[in-house]
Amino acid sequence: MKYCFGVDIGGTTVKLGLFSEAGAIVEKWEIVTRTENEGAAILPDVAEAINGKLEQHGIEKEQVLGIGVGVPAPVTVDGIVNGSANLGWKYKNAKKELEELTGLTAEFGNDANVAALGEMWKGGGVGYRNMIMVTLGTGVGGGIIINGKILTGENGAGGEIGHMCVNLEETDTCGCGGHGCLEQYASATGISRLARKKMEHETRATILTKEDLSAKAVFDAVKEGDEVAIEVATEMGNYLGHAMADMAAVLDPAVFVIGGGVSKAGEVLLSFIEKPFMEKAFFANKNVKFKLATLGNDAGICGAAKLVLED
Amino acid sequence: MKYCFGVDIGGTTVKLGLFSEAGAIVEKWEIVTRTENEGAAILPDVAEAINGKLEQHGIEKEQVLGIGVGVPAPVTVDGIVNGSANLGWKYKNAKKELEELTGLTAEFGNDANVAALGEMWKGGGVGYRNMIMVTLGTGVGGGIIINGKILTGENGAGGEIGHMCVNLEETDTCGCGGHGCLEQYASATGISRLARKKMEHETRATILTKEDLSAKAVFDAVKEGDEVAIEVATEMGNYLGHAMADMAAVLDPAVFVIGGGVSKAGEVLLSFIEKPFMEKAFFANKNVKFKLATLGNDAGICGAAKLVLED
Fold first, then answer.
1. pLDDT number for residue A143
2. Is the pLDDT of residue B194 over 80?
3. What is its EC number (chains A, B) (predicted)?
4. Which of A81, A207, B119, B211 could form a disulfide with B123 if both were Cys (CB 3.0 to 4.6 A apart)?
5. How far is B198 from chain A (nearest CA, A)?
6. How far is A159 from chain B (nearest CA, A)?
7. Do B242 and A156 make contact, defined as CB atoms within 8 angstroms?
8. Are B91 and B170 within one domain?
9. Whether residue A302 sits in one domain with residue A177
10. ipTM above 0.90, yes or no
């Protein structure tokens, strides 16, 4: 029997999974991410957790195909991270360090890209080989899968779709320093921002309140038929759907998978995205499918495990 | 000694090249594209040309690594063409047909994608593995190379960057039926259109004349310092540069290679593109390089040959 590990390193916790060669989750658990001291303890902590788990289950290192790891930063194909704000890392040869600490093969990827791979393998993208995952969380992340493999890009920054410019007139500044980034409209914080702007001058009756203009509150109100909330969702969906039409013209995917906290709104979210997408999509791309992500927090460890499993 | 063929099928002529295994062009020639009768003669004509060339040079079929072919249509990874307006083809299993006609292995690709591969191999993209080729001709085509390979896409429509929507306010219709496509501003015909619109209400002195508002006339005037022409080039460059910033956010390329008839304007063209690109590019993409294509009409046969040569 052979095994592998999938590891999803976040700014607060590290999620780990022990997988069978066939892809079943044998066990999953978490450890704390120790970001102090430039995150020097993170990879040693991961190595200790993995070594401990092998001992606990009586698994020999020869039985382990490798360790796949997702990290919140651009990562090159060689496993080099050129700094991660969330982890405190500066330049780090993460692959080399973890391989030396464990004596096992390690493959690294960007967390959004790795989660996309997980959704293709076991989630919303099952059955497809050309997929764009759009993650609507605090920010907007993306993961592009071409012919079953992650599109890493030259600097490990492939799929940074949250920083496509969708509004040349924007005066507010994005976290990246740019103006008019998709993230400013389609992330959870972006949706709140659109709702807040609308509520400043709103005179119609609405169940939205200035105390709670979260993305969840907006989509809950949409489900109640609230006109003001529907206008906010329409504005968000227009920016996102049009940007997705541009992504499709470039990449010609078979499927979009929508994940992240905002996607908990469910199918209603897709309706606000598909209409503007279809209005602007190139004819060759109009048969693309729209799916919700299904793996939730497990997408990261699944995709990480898939990094070291053969097709 | 081993050989391969690179074939570039256009709507008027088929360009053919005989290449050595090492990649040198041994001979190149053209035949007429017979598009009548749904283009039924095109592949038989190609097969005859190849068989004749082998006989002429005394090359055995065992010495031929294969035939690479670029066609003006989307092509799947399996060599299926689902119709080509320029060739008169309906559905065609082009790979199977040419292999049966020649007894040789054939690989097919979209002509813009194949030209991009050629430019990476021997032209403006030499030394790079992640490249976006932008072809500014009658239309705007694109070819995306990821890790040295063509991004084909699910329907063979990868890299259709000319149909990214760059202006939601546009009322004129693109050839594809859409509105505000990049092609409407950055192709040779798009540049003429921008110039014509500007000249309608222009009162300043300009060396541009309503009789010749071709892209070449515009860039010739730009080189003379003509204020009106510079404004047309600036408008075109803004649309293109901003769209390229969005492509870069998605794909994280190392280099853009600009080809097609409009690129004959030379380095001055790049200056109009790079400035708006830098204004809108995500920080991780600001080190991307801008190059002019160098192969001209040979890009197609070179890229086609590269389809059947190993890395």
1. 97
2. yes
3. 2.7.1.2
4. B119
5. 22
6. 5
7. no
8. no
9. no
10. yes
* CA distance linking residue B64 with residue B67, whole number of Å: 8
Q: Are residues A206 and A175 in the same domain?
A: yes
Whether residue B70 sits in one domain with residue B29: yes
How many domains does chain B contain in total?
Answer: 2
pLDDT at A77: 87
Enclosing domain of residue B135: 126-294
Residues on chain B touching A153 (C-beta within 8 angstroms): 130, 251-253
Interface of B with A in 60-99 (CB under 8 A): 74, 77
pLDDT tens-digit profile of A118-170? Answer: 999 999 999 999 999 999 998 999 999 999 999 999 999 999 999 999 999 99
The model's pLDDT over B250-274, given as tens digits with 9 standing for 90+, comes to 999 999 999 999 999 999 999 999 9
Same domain, B102 and B197: no
CATH of the domain at A151: 3.30.420.40
With an 8 Å Cβ cutoff, are A160 and B247 in contact?
no
How would you classify residue A112: left for phi > 0, otherwise alpha for psi between -120 and 50, otherwise beta?
A: alpha
- Specify whether the CB–CB gap between B94 and B75 falls below 8 A: yes
